[in-house]
Amino acid sequence: MKKIEAIIKPFKLDDLKEALSTLGVSGMTLSEVKGFGRQKGHTEVYRGAEYVVDFIPKVKVEIVVEAERVDEVVETIMNSVRTGKIGDGKIFVLPVEEVCRIRTGEKGKAAI
Amino acid sequence: MKKYILLLVVTMMCWCGSLAMAADPVGDPSGANTGVAADVVGASAGAPTAAELASMSAAEPLAAKLADVIGHNRIAINMVWTLLCGFLVMFMQAGFALAEGGFTRAKNAGHTMAMNFMIYGIGILGYWICGFAIQMGGVGGVASLGGGTVLNNEFVINLFGHDFGLFGTKGFFLSGDTYDAVVYGIFLFQMVFMDTTATIPTGSMAERWTFKSFVIYGFFITALVYPLYANWVWGGGWLSQLGKNFGLGHGHVDFAGSSVVHMTGGFAALAGAMVLGPRLGKFKADGTPNAIPGHHIPMAVTGCFILAFGWFGFNAGSTLAGGDLRIAVVATNTMLASAAGAFAAMVYMWVFYGKPDISIIANGLLAGLVAITAPCAFVDATSAVLIGAIAGVLLCISVFFVERVMKVDDPVGAFSVHGVNGAWGVLALGLFADGKYGDAFNGVPGTVKGLFYGDSGQFVAQLIGTITNAVFVFVVMYVFFKVLDKIVPLRVSPEMELEGLDQSEVGVTAYPEFHLNKTHR
What we know:
The complex is a heterodimer.
Chain A: E1 2-8, H1 13-23, E2 29-35, E3 42-46, E4 49-53, E5 56-65, H2 70-81, E6 89-95
Antiparallel strand pairs in A: 1-5, 1-6, 2-5, 3-4
Helix pairs in contact in A: 1-2
Chain B: H1 2-20, H2 50-59, H3 61-103, H4 109-136, E1 154-159, E2 162-168, H5 181-199, H6 201-204, H7 211-234, H8 242-246, H9 258-276, H10 297-316, H11 327-353, H12 358-372, H13 381-405, H14 414-432, H15 456-487, H16 494-499, H17 501-506
Antiparallel strand pairs in B: 1-2
Helix pairs in contact in B: 2-3, 3-4, 3-5, 3-10, 4-5, 4-7, 5-7, 5-9, 7-15, 9-14, 9-15, 10-11, 10-12, 11-12, 11-13, 12-13, 12-14, 13-14, 14-15
């Protein structure tokens, strides 16, 4: 089992959700985060004083899937959220040791 | 502690002293004996003179009785007007609270609100104890309200062959024969103006001021500092008599308080902000300022609207007479100046800083209002617009001067709005007063005229009043804050300042359910 962490632009979230539901991915977890990569911050002004905001608001989506599905899911995510402009985000794939469904106590692939 | 005991002893002595003095006029607590036939004399252009009232009453008994009712109604109109306008000014406290709260950070919102809230309570009490007596104890009555003549004790010194009124000595605790309907009405009206002054420094000193020292400050400014200058201008004191004593126009004229209220508040705000020092993280090591954005712009703008609304009471109410139809001119001049101030600030920011920054525009609206507060009764619409527009520009220049040149941290621009434009307001009166109103103001015959309409003496009187305020208020408040800092530290600890003042100073968190964005600063 693998966890896919996708950090994307907030306004692309709906596109990602739609694309994944077509694939049959059954759930995801969302957090609102801030970050930057090679996309630089931008300057804001308040009462004439400029200040640089380094961290850009992003959305992090976490999905756990069977290892066989990883490539398909990653490809779908990338195609659904890509704008071609700087700041599109990144996807990380991590190994998952165990998955449990709390309600029933199921473990492993049945719990995904 | 010693300060408290001394204050208590002095006020008790003054109170006993005032009780012991023989009072010729008598207080009218029920108000039933206020507003009588005599109050129709001079009430309008065609009103009977005192002699006519006496002689004609004998021949026309019904008319004599009706004159009594009419006199009562005239006073009643004026009293209702004054009180309602006073209630409007009280509502400005909410405006200040919302404006200051919105322009400062969320982690301090509880504390900022608490200061703006408690200054209302502390102000009323300090003023009741002795502030009102010091300010109005010798004003001698208000003709439009038909009474208040029990306020007849002013402490004067004699200099250069003239009487210099310094402070009143009647009306402590509103007791004795100052338990009078008209006196209570005057108290309420004057009190809400005083509270406007007292709340101004809470803006410049926000986000790092200990609540304990704030409470002590509250009593000091409301019981002593504000009332002294206010006595000199509105209580019959020496600044108002510069015309009668030295031929300088009508003396220092300040219709609704550009100097009495706003300069006093603004210069106290500056003194406090300088003694406190800037917020942590406000200035970089090389002195360039960092932006510390306010947390709730909608709240701040709403607050400024409420202030603009209350200002109708502030300016138009200062006629103390609903029957004086100049109130329409006063109110309209007020709103024109506010619009001009906001517009001028908007243009300035757009041209010089690229964007019409709404926080500065809101300050510009207030600056226009502050500037028109003194001249509102004495100018026409065009002058009001001009005065307001200049105020908007002065505001912008001042905000950046205070922050970048003086390196003083004023989170809401309190000094720039109230101090700088308060001064501009009283000086503008000395320039633009057009002679259409103000006959016998401050006991000087003729209407009030400024420099541009032929009275240079008026401008000199305004200058004297302005400089007196700036020096007196700034020096006294600066020394006060320095001394107070030694007894009760003015500033919270750096850890508390970074954490937020809400829990440590006032025991409540303004937004307990929200995870505040601590990384934003």
